[in-house]
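Request: How about a record?
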Amino acid sequence: MRFHNSQNATKVNHRMNLGNAATLTANALSTVNMLLVNEGLSVLAGVLILIVGWIVATWAKRLTSRGLAHVPLDLTLKPLIASLARYVILAFTIILVLGQFGVQTTSLIAVLGAAGLAVGLALQGTLSNVAAGVMLLVLRPFRVGHFVQAGGVSGTIREIGLFTTLMTTRDLVYVSLPNSAVWSGVITNYTREPLRRIAFTLPVDIANDIDKVEKAILGALASDAKVLKAPEPWVGVSEIQEISVIVTVNCYAKSEDYWRTLPSVQKTVKTALDKAGIMFAVTRQAVAVRNERETPINRDMPTLSETHREAAE
C-alpha cells in the first residue's frame, strides 16, 4: 500500500513539473514575441522617422532657397541659411530616432560632448575651415559675385560655405578652396570699390612734340564712352630715356566694365596716335666707319664693304 502511494506521488510530481515547464515555456515565448513586436515596431518607427526627417530637411532647404530668392538679402547669406535649416531638421530627426530606442536626452548630451571633444581634436583642420568660414561671413571681405584673388586663385565668388569657398575663374574653371586657405592669406578684392583705375605706359619717340602727344591721348580718352569724366583722366611724362619718352596714361572706369574698357582704351589711344602722326620709339642702329692701322690682328679680317657685298650675293 505504501509502495502504491509512493508511485502515485511520483507521477503527480512528474505531471506538475511538466506543467510548470510548459507554463514557463509559454511565458518565455510570449515574452519573446512581445519583445520582438515592440522592438520591431520601434525599429520600424525609427526608420520611418529618419526617412521622413531626411525628406523634410531636403524640402526645407529647397523651399528656403526659393523663399530667400525674393528677399532683399545678401547673396552670401542665402545658401548658408538654407543649409542651416536642413541641418537643424536633421539634428531634431536624429534626436527623435534615438529617443524612439529609449536613449535618454541627458546621457545623449554627455556622450555628444565627449564625442565632440574627441572629434574636435581629430579634425582640427576641418574645424579651422568652419572657423574661417564664420569669420568670412562676419567680416565679409568679399561677397557672392565679387572678383577676388585669394588662396593663390583669381576668380568670381559663387558661394561661401562653412567649409569651402567656391569660385569660377575667368576661363570658366570651377575652383573649390578651403576656407582656412582663403582666410589665412591675402585677399585682393577687385570689385568691392565702384571704380577702378586703368594705367598703362607708352614709349614714344623723343623727336615727337609732347604737347601734341598728350592732346591726342586725352582726345582719345574723351571719345571712349566707358572712360569716366570724373575722376579726370591724366596723361604725363614719367621718364625720359635716350631715344624715347615714357608717357603714363591714367583713367577710370566702373569696376564691372574694367576688363572691357582696358583693351578698348588702348586700341583707341593707338589709333589716335597713328592719326596724329606720332612715332613710337624704336631701337636705332648706326653704322660707324673707323680708320684703323693695319695690325696682325685685323690684317686678315674682311672690310665693311666686303661684308656687305657678300651679304648681297
In short: The mean pLDDT is 79.
